[in-house]
Amino acid sequence: MAPVPIRILLTVYFYCVVSIFFCLAFLTELIAYVLLSPFSFRHKGVKARVLSSIFQTYMLAALYCLPFWRVKFLNSPPLASSSSSSSFSPSAYNPKRTVIMANHASGADPWLLTAVVYPWPAFFVIKDSLCRVPIAGWCLALAGSIRVKFTKEKGGWATAPGAVKLLMQESNEVMDRGHALVVFPEGTRSVTGRLQPFKDGFFRFAVEHEGISILPV
Questions:
Q1: What is the pLDDT of residues 57-77, one digit of tens each?
Q2: Residue 191 near residue 109 (C-beta atoms within 8 A)
Q3: 9-31 average pLDDT score
């Protein structure tokens, strides 16, 4: 383990880099949102894809500015079997109508997943309250993240009335546009790092809708 002063410097560097790129992403998304708004009624899917791509690009750039994080592909995903794991590139594989599922062991997961899915058009399923966080949350909202509303019951994890129905409806719209969803089936981040029980919502979603695949990451 690195000495305490080094860890403090790395932590400060991490937050500075992430803050800068979140601010840049928000400003760029906001400009794109204003410019594309007149066309959103006829081209809603295009607007969503552009805003999502802007967010993903900035988050990927932030990741590459953090030298202690790197992404390594151990296996090629399905339908990309012609590529070996060592030579696989995300640009060679587009998971249309796919639910990408990942464990949620740390706060770094969203950035690492951004690197995994880029440049695939993919939308994250997140807790609604995250979108109220200044700058970072606004970026998530503009990027078209699908929000789940919760109430204060069950420790803050009880879904609001009609929230699940709306979630599945919006998820189906993403699938109809030929894009992918990124979900954390555990529902929340694991504090201990141990795997938590999975919620079955998106497993059932994939089974009940024709042509939808699940890609574990």
A1: 999 898 889 877 777 777 666
A2: no
A3: 93
CA atoms within 13 A on the CB side of 123: 27
Between residues 174 and 193, which one has the greater pLDDT? 174
What are the percentages of helix, strand and coil residues in the chain, rounded to 5? 50, 10, 40
Structure token pair of residue 109: 């997961």
**What number of H helices and E strands is found in the chain?**
7, 7
Q: Are strands 98-101 and 146-148 parallel, antiparallel or unpaired?
A: unpaired
Q: Is 157 exposed, middle or buried (0-12, 13-18, 19+ CB in 10 A)?
A: middle
pTM equals 0.81
CB-based contacts of 156-163 (< 8 A; 24+ apart in sequence): 157/187, 157/188
> Rounded to whole angstroms, how far apart are CA atoms 36 and 210?
32
SS3 101: strand
The mean pLDDT value for 180-186 works out to 89
Contact (CB, 8 A) for 114 and 63: yes
Position with higher pLDDT, 143 vs 42: 143
